[in-house]
Structure of P pilus assembly protein, chaperone PapD:
Amino acid sequence: MKNAILSIFLLGIFLTPLRLKAQISIAPTTVFIDQNGIGTIFITNPGETPQEINVSFLFGYPGNDDLGNLIMVYGDSLSEKQFGMGDRLRAFPRTFILAPQQQQTVRLQARPDRTLAPGTYFTRVKITSNAQTADVEQTTNEGVSTQVNFKFDQVIAAFQKVGAVTTGLEFGQVSTEVNEGIIRVIPEFKVTGNSPYLGSVTATLRNAQKQVLAENQQTVALYFSGKRAVELKMPDQLAPGTYEIVLTYETKRSDIPSSDLVQASLISQTVNLTIQ
Protein backbone atom coordinates (compact mmCIF):
# COMPACT_ATOMS: atom_id res chain seq x y z
CA MET A 1 0.00 0.00 0.00
CA LYS A 2 1.29 3.42 -0.87
CA ASN A 3 2.48 5.69 1.88
CA ALA A 4 0.15 8.59 2.70
CA ILE A 5 1.88 11.75 3.93
CA LEU A 6 -0.14 14.49 5.58
CA SER A 7 1.44 17.95 5.45
CA ILE A 8 -0.14 20.90 7.23
CA PHE A 9 0.90 24.22 5.77
CA LEU A 10 0.51 27.32 7.93
CA LEU A 11 0.50 30.51 5.87
CA GLY A 12 1.21 32.43 9.06
CA ILE A 13 1.65 31.44 12.65
CA PHE A 14 -1.40 33.55 13.53
CA LEU A 15 -3.73 31.76 11.09
CA THR A 16 -4.22 28.61 13.15
CA PRO A 17 -6.24 27.97 16.32
CA LEU A 18 -3.56 25.53 17.47
CA ARG A 19 -1.21 26.82 20.13
CA LEU A 20 2.01 26.34 18.20
CA LYS A 21 5.26 28.13 18.76
CA ALA A 22 7.39 29.34 15.87
CA GLN A 23 10.18 26.89 15.12
CA ILE A 24 12.83 29.58 14.64
CA SER A 25 13.54 33.09 15.88
CA ILE A 26 14.45 36.02 13.62
CA ALA A 27 16.31 39.25 14.33
CA PRO A 28 15.88 42.04 13.54
CA THR A 29 12.16 42.21 12.83
CA THR A 30 12.72 45.09 10.38
CA VAL A 31 15.66 45.15 7.99
CA PHE A 32 17.24 48.26 6.51
CA ILE A 33 19.53 47.90 3.51
CA ASP A 34 22.66 50.02 4.05
CA GLN A 35 24.41 52.36 1.63
CA ASN A 36 26.42 49.40 0.28
CA GLY A 37 23.23 47.56 -0.59
CA ILE A 38 23.59 45.01 2.22
CA GLY A 39 21.18 43.96 4.97
CA THR A 40 21.58 41.23 7.59
CA ILE A 41 19.14 38.79 9.17
CA PHE A 42 20.01 36.37 11.97
CA ILE A 43 17.94 33.17 12.05
CA THR A 44 18.21 30.95 15.13
CA ASN A 45 16.95 27.44 15.77
CA PRO A 46 16.34 27.19 19.55
CA GLY A 47 14.85 23.70 19.34
CA GLU A 48 16.19 20.18 19.13
CA THR A 49 15.09 19.42 15.55
CA PRO A 50 16.92 20.50 12.38
CA GLN A 51 14.89 23.01 10.37
CA GLU A 52 14.63 23.45 6.63
CA ILE A 53 14.70 27.19 5.91
CA ASN A 54 13.62 29.03 2.78
CA VAL A 55 13.94 32.81 2.28
CA SER A 56 11.78 34.53 -0.34
CA PHE A 57 10.28 37.95 -1.07
CA LEU A 58 6.83 39.33 -1.72
CA PHE A 59 5.61 42.89 -2.07
CA GLY A 60 3.18 44.05 0.58
CA TYR A 61 2.60 46.70 3.22
CA PRO A 62 0.28 47.50 6.15
CA GLY A 63 -2.90 49.19 5.00
CA ASN A 64 -6.33 49.78 6.49
CA ASP A 65 -10.00 49.24 5.83
CA ASP A 66 -12.75 51.88 5.90
CA LEU A 67 -13.12 51.47 9.69
CA GLY A 68 -9.46 52.18 10.35
CA ASN A 69 -8.54 48.58 11.07
CA LEU A 70 -5.06 47.39 10.17
CA ILE A 71 -4.88 44.97 7.23
CA MET A 72 -2.02 43.69 5.08
CA VAL A 73 -2.12 44.66 1.42
CA TYR A 74 -0.69 42.32 -1.21
CA GLY A 75 -1.08 42.35 -4.98
CA ASP A 76 -0.83 46.15 -5.37
CA SER A 77 1.00 46.07 -8.69
CA LEU A 78 1.01 49.86 -9.19
CA SER A 79 2.71 50.54 -5.86
CA GLU A 80 5.06 47.62 -6.40
CA LYS A 81 6.20 49.06 -9.71
CA GLN A 82 6.90 52.43 -8.08
CA PHE A 83 8.23 51.43 -4.64
CA GLY A 84 9.05 47.71 -4.77
CA MET A 85 12.55 46.25 -4.76
CA GLY A 86 11.67 43.46 -7.17
CA ASP A 87 14.44 41.27 -8.54
CA ARG A 88 17.07 43.72 -7.31
CA LEU A 89 16.98 42.07 -3.88
CA ARG A 90 18.56 38.66 -3.30
CA ALA A 91 19.16 36.50 -0.23
CA PHE A 92 22.33 34.52 0.49
CA PRO A 93 21.82 31.72 1.36
CA ARG A 94 18.25 31.35 0.20
CA THR A 95 17.70 27.76 1.38
CA PHE A 96 19.57 25.83 4.04
CA ILE A 97 19.31 23.37 6.92
CA LEU A 98 19.60 24.98 10.35
CA ALA A 99 20.89 22.59 13.00
CA PRO A 100 19.53 22.65 16.58
CA GLN A 101 20.86 25.44 18.80
CA GLN A 102 22.57 27.06 15.81
CA GLN A 103 22.33 30.46 14.14
CA GLN A 104 22.61 31.33 10.44
CA THR A 105 23.43 34.77 9.05
CA VAL A 106 21.46 35.62 5.91
CA ARG A 107 22.72 38.50 3.78
CA LEU A 108 20.29 40.55 1.75
CA GLN A 109 21.92 42.22 -1.24
CA ALA A 110 20.25 44.90 -3.34
CA ARG A 111 21.62 45.34 -6.83
CA PRO A 112 22.45 49.01 -7.53
CA ASP A 113 20.18 50.91 -9.92
CA ARG A 114 21.18 54.47 -10.74
CA THR A 115 17.83 55.13 -12.42
CA LEU A 116 15.96 55.00 -9.10
CA ALA A 117 14.32 58.22 -7.96
CA PRO A 118 15.07 59.37 -4.39
CA GLY A 119 12.84 57.70 -1.83
CA THR A 120 12.40 54.66 0.37
CA TYR A 121 11.81 51.33 -1.38
CA PHE A 122 10.37 48.34 0.43
CA THR A 123 9.27 44.73 0.31
CA ARG A 124 8.51 41.84 2.67
CA VAL A 125 10.90 39.02 3.52
CA LYS A 126 9.14 35.68 4.01
CA ILE A 127 11.09 33.12 6.03
CA THR A 128 9.58 29.64 5.88
CA SER A 129 10.64 26.93 8.30
CA ASN A 130 9.69 23.30 8.72
CA ALA A 131 11.24 20.38 10.54
CA GLN A 132 13.65 18.40 8.41
CA THR A 133 11.89 15.32 7.03
CA ALA A 134 12.64 12.23 9.08
CA ASP A 135 14.08 9.15 7.37
CA VAL A 136 11.71 6.78 9.15
CA GLU A 137 7.96 7.35 9.16
CA GLN A 138 5.45 6.08 11.68
CA THR A 139 3.40 3.25 10.10
CA THR A 140 -0.15 2.33 11.10
CA ASN A 141 -1.56 -1.21 11.21
CA GLU A 142 -3.08 -0.73 7.77
CA GLY A 143 0.33 -0.04 6.28
CA VAL A 144 -0.37 3.64 5.74
CA SER A 145 2.37 5.88 7.04
CA THR A 146 1.51 9.34 8.30
CA GLN A 147 3.87 12.25 8.60
CA VAL A 148 2.69 15.62 9.91
CA ASN A 149 4.86 18.50 8.81
CA PHE A 150 4.09 22.02 9.99
CA LYS A 151 5.35 24.87 7.84
CA PHE A 152 5.65 28.29 9.46
CA ASP A 153 5.86 31.52 7.49
CA GLN A 154 7.23 34.55 9.31
CA VAL A 155 7.17 37.82 7.37
CA ILE A 156 9.26 40.91 8.16
CA ALA A 157 9.70 44.24 6.39
CA ALA A 158 12.77 45.34 4.43
CA PHE A 159 13.57 48.92 3.39
CA GLN A 160 16.16 50.67 1.27
CA LYS A 161 16.66 54.45 1.40
CA VAL A 162 17.87 56.01 -1.84
CA GLY A 163 19.05 59.62 -2.03
CA ALA A 164 17.32 62.37 -0.06
CA VAL A 165 14.38 60.92 1.88
CA THR A 166 11.53 62.73 3.65
CA THR A 167 8.28 61.82 5.32
CA GLY A 168 5.42 63.48 7.15
CA LEU A 169 1.71 63.33 7.84
CA GLU A 170 -1.29 65.44 6.91
CA PHE A 171 -4.62 64.87 8.65
CA GLY A 172 -8.22 65.29 7.61
CA GLN A 173 -11.33 64.51 9.63
CA VAL A 174 -10.87 62.77 12.99
CA SER A 175 -13.74 60.70 14.42
CA THR A 176 -14.18 58.86 17.71
CA GLU A 177 -16.21 55.94 18.96
CA VAL A 178 -16.55 54.10 22.26
CA ASN A 179 -17.26 50.39 22.40
CA GLU A 180 -17.02 48.06 25.42
CA GLY A 181 -14.77 50.40 27.33
CA ILE A 182 -12.37 51.04 24.46
CA ILE A 183 -12.02 54.50 22.90
CA ARG A 184 -11.13 54.45 19.22
CA VAL A 185 -9.84 57.61 17.59
CA ILE A 186 -9.89 57.32 13.80
CA PRO A 187 -8.02 60.04 11.90
CA GLU A 188 -7.89 60.35 8.14
CA PHE A 189 -4.24 60.65 7.13
CA LYS A 190 -2.01 61.17 4.11
CA VAL A 191 1.71 60.42 4.07
CA THR A 192 3.78 63.21 2.55
CA GLY A 193 7.31 63.08 1.20
CA ASN A 194 8.82 60.08 -0.57
CA SER A 195 8.96 57.57 2.30
CA PRO A 196 6.58 55.65 4.58
CA TYR A 197 5.96 57.12 8.02
CA LEU A 198 7.44 54.72 10.58
CA GLY A 199 7.17 55.71 14.22
CA SER A 200 4.75 55.72 17.12
CA VAL A 201 1.61 57.50 18.24
CA THR A 202 0.62 58.36 21.80
CA ALA A 203 -3.07 58.86 22.60
CA THR A 204 -3.71 60.98 25.70
CA LEU A 205 -7.14 61.49 27.29
CA ARG A 206 -7.49 64.71 29.30
CA ASN A 207 -10.28 66.38 31.23
CA ALA A 208 -11.20 70.07 31.17
CA GLN A 209 -8.43 70.77 33.70
CA LYS A 210 -5.85 69.15 31.37
CA GLN A 211 -5.33 66.28 33.78
CA VAL A 212 -4.22 63.06 32.08
CA LEU A 213 -6.83 60.36 32.65
CA ALA A 214 -5.53 57.67 30.29
CA GLU A 215 -2.67 57.23 27.89
CA ASN A 216 -1.53 54.60 25.42
CA GLN A 217 1.32 54.37 22.92
CA GLN A 218 1.49 52.13 19.88
CA THR A 219 3.77 51.78 16.88
CA VAL A 220 2.60 52.91 13.47
CA ALA A 221 3.67 52.13 9.92
CA LEU A 222 1.75 54.39 7.53
CA TYR A 223 2.52 54.09 3.84
CA PHE A 224 0.05 56.04 1.69
CA SER A 225 -3.33 57.36 2.87
CA GLY A 226 -6.53 56.25 4.54
CA LYS A 227 -7.72 55.80 8.12
CA ARG A 228 -5.83 54.19 10.99
CA ALA A 229 -7.50 53.79 14.38
CA VAL A 230 -5.70 54.52 17.64
CA GLU A 231 -7.11 52.90 20.77
CA LEU A 232 -6.95 53.48 24.50
CA LYS A 233 -8.84 52.05 27.43
CA MET A 234 -11.52 54.30 28.91
CA PRO A 235 -11.08 54.92 32.64
CA ASP A 236 -13.62 53.31 34.95
CA GLN A 237 -16.56 55.46 36.02
CA LEU A 238 -15.74 58.28 33.63
CA ALA A 239 -18.20 61.05 34.42
CA PRO A 240 -20.39 62.51 31.64
CA GLY A 241 -18.85 65.54 30.01
CA THR A 242 -16.52 66.72 27.28
CA TYR A 243 -12.92 65.54 27.17
CA GLU A 244 -10.09 65.95 24.73
CA ILE A 245 -7.86 63.33 23.16
CA VAL A 246 -4.46 64.35 21.86
CA LEU A 247 -2.72 62.16 19.29
CA THR A 248 1.03 62.75 19.18
CA TYR A 249 2.97 61.23 16.30
CA GLU A 250 6.76 60.96 16.28
CA THR A 251 9.32 59.12 14.17
CA LYS A 252 10.64 57.07 17.07
CA ARG A 253 10.22 53.40 17.91
CA SER A 254 11.77 51.17 20.55
CA ASP A 255 12.36 48.34 18.04
CA ILE A 256 14.12 50.40 15.33
CA PRO A 257 17.21 52.62 15.76
CA SER A 258 16.50 56.30 15.15
CA SER A 259 19.30 56.37 12.57
CA ASP A 260 17.30 53.97 10.38
CA LEU A 261 14.05 55.91 10.58
CA VAL A 262 13.25 58.75 8.19
CA GLN A 263 12.83 61.65 10.60
CA ALA A 264 9.98 64.15 10.73
CA SER A 265 8.85 66.84 13.14
CA LEU A 266 6.50 65.85 15.95
CA ILE A 267 2.84 66.09 14.88
CA SER A 268 -0.20 66.47 17.17
CA GLN A 269 -3.92 66.24 16.53
CA THR A 270 -6.64 67.04 19.09
CA VAL A 271 -10.24 65.86 19.05
CA ASN A 272 -13.06 66.26 21.57
CA LEU A 273 -14.83 63.29 23.10
CA THR A 274 -18.30 63.65 24.61
CA ILE A 275 -19.42 61.15 27.25
CA GLN A 276 -23.16 61.19 27.97
User: Anything to note?
Assistant: Residues 178 and 198 are 27 Å apart (CA to CA). Helices lie at 77-83. The radius of gyration is 23 Å. The chain has one helix and 22 strands.
